Amino acid sequence: MKKIQVGFLMSYDYELLKKSIPPVYEEADSIFIALDKDQKTWTGTRFEIDPDFFSWLESFDTSKKIIIYKDCFYDPNLDPMENEVRERTMLGIKMGVGNWLIQIDSDEYFVNFKEFVKDLRSKDVYLEHPEKNQVQIAGFYINLYKYVEDGILYVDESRNQKFATNFPSYRTGRNTRKRVIYTKNLVLHECLSRTEEEIRTKFENWGHAHQVKYNDFIDKWSKVNKDNYSEHQDFFYLEPEKWKRLDYVRGHSISEISKNLNYSSLMPSDLFIWKKNFGQWFKFLMR
After folding, report:
1. Rounded CA gap, 212 and 218, in Å?
2. Are the C-beta atoms of residues 109 and 193 closer than 8 Å to each other?
3. How many domains does the chain have?
4. Each residue of 183-240: pLDDT tens digit?
5. Most buried of the four, 92, 114, 253, 259, by CB within 10 Å?
6. Residue 107 C-alpha from the chain's centroid
């Protein structure tokens, strides 16, 4: 027990796992990949997997840490978000209560996973009686918006995301609605930096499928480019004002983009983190 257990959800964008698994591989005790046994998404759409992917996975897994967890994760009686919560809960239980349960999506790339693990280890006390003292550990997203000439557009303000918990009582996505402990860790999120076809596939099959107004979103996404991005605002796909502005960084790959990003301008301050954590501590003090 008290292991660093990392879980991934494998679906239509499984190829991105080739970029999201390597940054966490060395520090993880085990890596679980949840795959629907009928290869269905949360909306019931079937997806195909190139057998070469499993060949890559086997050759990459030199320490034999990776476990493919197959189960029925699609329930036609549930909406997409309910299916997402169901799968994440099943995966969390499979990884084992009593360990740090980290869930990372295929399009999420940790900048410094070793530091995140260090932060988790400083909080191992929460693994003693996890059901009675539930917490979530959050880092911060750098949301990548669109590949453009010689680089990428990204949201110019990082946003928090929950990545780990000591007890998998998920309510919405990875959110258990329990106390959050914020850490200074950044994750590149290749959320929308895809082709238009890939974005449509994502919007039709993920947990927010019933919430997104695709045509409204894709109209703005299609028009924005390296030369005019500063003339536009409000880019988020659910509540547009949550992503107010974009910025640009050069790079033709995730590794180049990561090297060229100015992380100091995107990392929340120590004071901000302290205020957030104090607020969470106080909010849950009497619960």
Report:
1. 11
2. no
3. 1
4. 999 999 998 898 888 888 888 876 665 666 778 788 889 999 999 999 999 998 888 8
5. 92
6. 7
pTM: 0.93
Residues with Cβ within 8 Å of 247's Cβ and at least 6 positions away in sequence, in order, are 153, 154, 155, 156, 229
DSSP 247: E
Separation of alpha carbons 187 and 205, rounded Å: 23
Encoded amino acid at 62, one letter: T
Tell me the residue range of the domain where 68 lies.
Answer: 4-193+262-283
In a domain, 51, yes or no: yes
The answer to whether residues 40 and 9 touch, using CB atoms and an 8 Å cutoff, is no
Q: What is the CATH classification number for the domain harbouring 62?
A: 3.90.550
Residue 123 contacts by C-beta under 8 Å, 6 or more apart in sequence? 135, 137, 181
Asked if residue 71 lies in contact with residue 195, where contact means CB atoms within 8 angstroms, the answer is: no
Q: Quick check: is 207 in a domain?
A: no
Q: Where are the alpha helices (DSSP H) in the chain?
A: 17-20, 22-25, 51-60, 80-95, 113-121, 196-205, 214-223, 254-260, 263-266, 270-283
pLDDT confidence tier of residue 286, bands split at 50, 70 and 90: confident
Q: Quick check: is 184 in a domain?
A: yes
Q: How far apart are CA 283 and CA 287, in angstroms?
A: 8
Is the per-residue pLDDT at 104 higher than 80?
A: yes
Give the pLDDT of residue 55.
Answer: 98
Crossing angle of helices 196-205/214-223, nearest 10°? Answer: 160
What are 13's two structure tokens? 């964008």
Query: Which pLDDT score is estimated for 200?
Result: 85
Among the listed residues 77, 7, 47, the one whose alpha carbon sits nearest the alpha carbon of residue 202: 47
Q: Which residues contact 199 (CB under 8 A, 6 or more apart)?
A: 192, 218, 221
Strands (E) in 57-178, as ranges, are 66-71, 100-104, 108-110, 135-148, 151-155, 159-165
In a domain, 188, yes or no: yes
